[in-house]
Amino acid sequence: MSATATSRGLTASLVRGAVTSPFKRAGRPGATLPADRLVVRDVRIAPGPLASYSRICGFSESGPLPLTYPHVLGFPLAMRLMTGRSFPLPVAGLVHTWIEITRHRAPHLTEAIELTVYADELSPHRRGTEVTMATEARSGGELVWESRSGYLSRHSTRGASPAAEAGLPALPALPVAELPAVAEWRLPGDLGRRYGAVSGDRNPIHLYPLTARLFGFPRAIAHGMWTVARCLAESAEPGRISYVRADFRAPVLLPATVTYAVDGAGTAFQLRSGGRVHLTGSTARDGAQPRS
Fold first, then answer.
1. Separation of alpha carbons 52 and 61, rounded Å
2. Torsion over CA of 272, 228, 191 and 90, rounded to 10 degrees?
3. Cis peptide before 255, with omega less than 30 degrees from 0?
4. Span 207-230, mean pLDDT?
5. Given pLDDT bands bounded at 50, 70 and 90, which one contains residue 7?
6. Which of 15, 234, 259, 263 would disulfide-bridge 268, Cβ 3.0–4.6 Å?
7. Alpha carbon distance 161, 214 (integer Å)
């Protein structure tokens, strides 16, 4: 099966999500996650879509497989699961809050992989309810790549249980010592639509000001996964990065001018504009231990 074949049902999933979201109430007591594990075997990477992804994210089209690309391949499965009737959160308006990716071995561009996606955890959050989604890529039974992502369904926590009202701690404010600025990027207003066409992630919050305002954003916001990928592409020797942890701290309203910053070791990075940090992250390279 080609990588593009895994996305044939994506449009249907998006339509299903739009239809079912109004009937789902995030934060309802006793909500549980589906136990399903969705699996697609013999997935092959299509050169055309990979080249389009590499271009919009800033990777070399002739380089190794970007660390973030298997997430794109697994996204149709994640959408199928999250728009299913047994999934407790409305998918419309979900906000990506964090991601952690580990590459155990660099997949070859020509090898077939098996993708598995499942919902791993449902947690109270200070702004609503967060679900952790897991994606795994295997080749010949060997786990070669995996990720865990947090997605937030925003809703009032007033009247919820004490644990839900406490939620997760707020992320720290901008550090006193900012990382050194390395590059400045001007992001166009249609970036969300362009990346959505490449990745398949056409969440309304990324597309147009009108659709974003329906979910409380004044303008369309950039995809979190684009910001992570763009930062990795800008780093030195991105093909050697085998681990990344990124936290999405504030949305990037489009259009925007943002600053990419990195520490001297090249392992910690930020994306910011003015005095506001949008993204923080850390990386490890082949053979190195991830930072705690």
1. 8
2. -100
3. yes
4. 94
5. very low
6. 263
7. 28
